[in-house]
Each structure stands twice: as structure tokens, then as C-alpha cells.
Amino acid sequence: MTLVSKGETFELGFFSPENSKNRYLGIWYKNITQTVVWVANGALNDSSGILTVNSTGNLVLRQHDKVVWYTTTPEKQARNPVAQLLDSGNLVVRDESETNSESYLWQSFDYPSDTILPGMKLGRNLRTGMEWRMTAWKSPNDPSPGIFYWGLLLYNYPEYYLMKGTEKFVRIGPWNGLHFSGIPDQKPNSIYDYNYISNNDEIYYTFSLKNEAVISRLVMNQTSSMSFRYVWMEDGQYWKFYKSLPKDNCDFYGICGVYGTCTITGSQICQCLSGFSPKSAQAWNSSDWSDGCVRNKPLNCTEKGKHGFVTVKGVKVPDTTNTWVDETISLEECRRNCLNNCSCMAYTHSNISGEGSGCVMWYGDLIDIRQFDNDGQDLHIRMHASEIGIHKDFIISIKLFFIQVHSSMYYLFSYLVLSNSTMKANKKRTRNS
Known about the structure:
It catalyses: L-threonyl-[protein] + ATP = O-phospho-L-threonyl-[protein] + ADP + H(+); L-seryl-[protein] + ATP = O-phospho-L-seryl-[protein] + ADP + H(+). Involved in sporophytic self-incompatibility system (the inability of flowering plants to achieve self-fertilization). It comes from Vigna angularis var. angularis. The structure is a single chain. By secondary structure, the chain is mainly β. The chain has four domains: 1-110, Agglutinin, subunit A (Orthogonal Prism); 112-247, no CATH class; 260-387, no CATH class; 398-428. It is 13% helix and 39% strand. It is built from three helices and 32 strands. The strands form eight sheets. It has an eight-stranded mixed beta sheet with strand order 24-23-31-27-32-29-30-28, with helices on one face. The termini are far apart.
């Protein structure tokens, strides 16, 4: 027996993964070859499982007399709790007497498994501490949580990571007002709209479909640690691949080490930033870039006036673990603040939409920078003046020289013209006399 949504879009019931004898409580598309989108993660070893809603408004999954899985509703209890599967794929528990149809005691959308559906959130509730994360199955025949998951880390400049346990595996960069810094090709499209919400209560990413007839989902692969977006092709009855992450080797976290930049179109994907050299030339030449790069000219905080910034264009900004953000100040003030703090290694706009606004500064070594050919954003990196190409003072001197030359030529020309006019006038007076 199953529970079907009103529009017969989704179905709740028990299923067995391929090559598994266990049964699990899950949700899948009703009219599509079994594609599971949510799992309660309570394994049953026979067909005796029973799901009920108790008097406190909690779902309870039992096998014989053993509780296999249950929900908790700490905020409030219901007088007459009911469970309902919505056409969005959201399994909800609500009070039947509640007038607000979107007021839930509990909802499965708060506990994603390996799939994100339209309307689901990926991020954090800052008020309650709840984290909405997408977690891969352990294997194709075991839907219990694996070691890979997408989650939001709450730095001063928050960003999403694909984590492998406690290890950062892939980073898409912080939201910069237009897109995630590491996905500059995240442009408007004909299939879905995406939104990034950040306020005092919550920070999350979500997407919605532009056409209700279209079916699309985000899903994590259990074995490859990749995330895919699929679109259902009704005519051919198959899931069409649309996008994936990571899409190439430059998406893997820190592949080029500190102060290295990854360029997928380069003959060697890792290069040191200008003004830096490989820490280990031997390892670097052997395509082991993990040690990263070091400065050609070390910075010395006692050398006031000898630091400046080099602008690197078209990048995914570095890991934001150690950052400071002020959304109210200009880029010039951001530059001054960074220059006056010797620990500040780089700065840029926190929001690049329009003419750009706000300030974000990085402290400590810079890691996981990616270079794009025709996209990305500017990053201003602190350097010793001797490493900033032509010294700024020299440029100023050259400008002043040309200004002086220009002025001298102007006055010389004016003098010659005036002298010539005077001579003509004197000759004219001489003839008249």
C-alpha cells in the first residue's frame, strides 16, 4: 500500500534498491520508472514495516515492536495530526485544524537525501540551526548516508562545498550577486530559475521550474561523487543529462596548492600567480602541485609604502575560510583597509552586480583559485612593489616627464609663434616709416 499525491505526481511507500534484500521507506515519481527522490533511511529486512502518525504529530516507522525510524516536532504539537504527500514531493505532517495550509509540524524537504527537487533548500536556518544538505547514498544498493555531501559553511563570506567526510572536495565559490564565483556560466536559462537567499534568519539556494510540465532534479551519484542535473524527456522516457559538478579537474579543491591558479585550457593546468614560483620545482615539474607556490619577494610589514596590489582578472576567488566582509564600503576604501593591515592578502567586491559594491578581504594564504578564459571576476592580490610589473612611482615619473615635455614644447611653440609675429610687426613698421 502506498500514499499518492493529489495530482499523482509522487508516491510514498516501501522499495528495495537494486541488488538489495532490504526495504526502505521512500518517495519516488509515480509515473516515471522508479526514481527515488527521498529516503527515510530506516532499513527493514522483511515486509513487516508499518508507518504511523502518533498523537504528538510524529511519524514512526516500526518493524514488529522495534522503532526503526521516527521524526521529532519540538516546536509545537498538534491536536489532530495528519500526514500528506504533496505534488511537490514534500511529505508533510500538519495539524488538520491549522488554517495556514503551509504551516507544517514536520516536512521531508527539511531532510534531503541525495536529491534536490524544486522548492527544496540547500543551506542553513540561522534561527534554528537546521542544516539543509544533500547527501549521497553509500552505494547504489544502500541508501543510507554516504561520506559525500553538499553543505554550506558559515564563514564571514559563506560558501558551498562538496565535502568528503571532513575534507573539502569541491568548492563552487561564494555568491557574488550574480552567481557562485566558481560557476560563471550559471546564466538564465529556459528550464529553471535559481535563487540565493541570505538574511538574518537563513541562507540557502533553491531553484524553481519555469514550466510546470518540465521535470528536473539535482542528484548526487554514489560512486563518482558527482552531482548531476537531469531533465525528464517524456517522449523518449529517459532522464537527459543537463549539467554536472565537478565538470573538470580545476573544480577539485586546492589542486594547485596555495597561490597556484588552475586553468583547464593550459598546457599544464596549474600555474603560479605572477610574482610567485613553485615551492618545489621538482614536484611541480612532475605534475604534483600540492605544495603550491611561494613569493619571489617576501612581504615585510616594516617596509611601509613598499606594498601594492596586482589585479588578476577572470578568476574564481580563493577559499573564504579567513575573510572579512563589509557590504557598505567602496572598493577604494576596501583597498585602503587591506593595505593598512599587513595580514590582508587580497580584496575584491563582495557583490559584482551592476558597478560592483561591498568589500571582502582575505587573510593568510590564498588557495583554490581558478582562472577562466572569458569570465570570472577581478581579485586584487597584495604584492611587494618590486613585483608589480613597472613600479607605480616609475609610472608616475614617466607621466610627469611627458607632462613636463608637453608643457615645454607648448611654451617653446608659443614663444616661436610670438617671436615670429613680433618680427613681422617690426618689419612692417620699418617699411611704413
